Fold:
Amino acid sequence: NAGVTQTPKFQVLKTGQSMTLQCAQDMNHEYMSWYRQDPGMGLRLIHYSVGAGITDQGEVPNGYNVSRSTTEDFPLRLLSAAPSQTSVYFCASSYFSGVAGNTIYFGEGSWLTVV
Amino acid sequence: DAKTTQPTSMDCAEGRAANLPCNHSTISGNEYVYWYRQIHSQGPQYIIHGLKNNETNEMASLIITEDRKSSTLILPHATLRDTAVYYCIVRPHTGRRALTFGSGTRLQVQP
Structure:
């Protein structure tokens, strides 16, 4: 049981480049989400998904796309990287049904620098 | 999610109990108190949650006042590895999944 796995851990992009941050979980969680954390700040929700084929926007969705083709994977795409997207990105997952509660598990983070 | 208020920072001596307070005076009847922590450069880690009864697990204890307007997270024997930012979050046990993180309490465990 690996939990929530994010790749890559570190990435440097040039302005205008695109890339995908990968996230996978092996806990059969329905709910998955992406957060970003800027230095000295709390986490902010980018996009989330309540199941395969279903996604929705969070607090700061602009400049990012997501898809959920399987229960396990929830990739985050940066369409045209900007320096303002320099941040640490965290993927998270949890069960959606109430029986298992509301505990959310996080990956170890992906450090992205846009120059 | 109900608003929470936590001290900005706290210090604790290694081996002593760390008591982290949280005020949540607007908590609703269906909302639980959750605690997470974030050790430097790592993803947030779930610690414990509770509704109205005191809870204990292998990591910590959670004491919730009878009126549920405040709670205290207790790390019984703090170690240097417990140095982290601790977040108190109030939310329903089901439904909306996203977490709203406030500023948290930065706990520094001193040797």
About this structure: Chain B has no helices and nine strands.
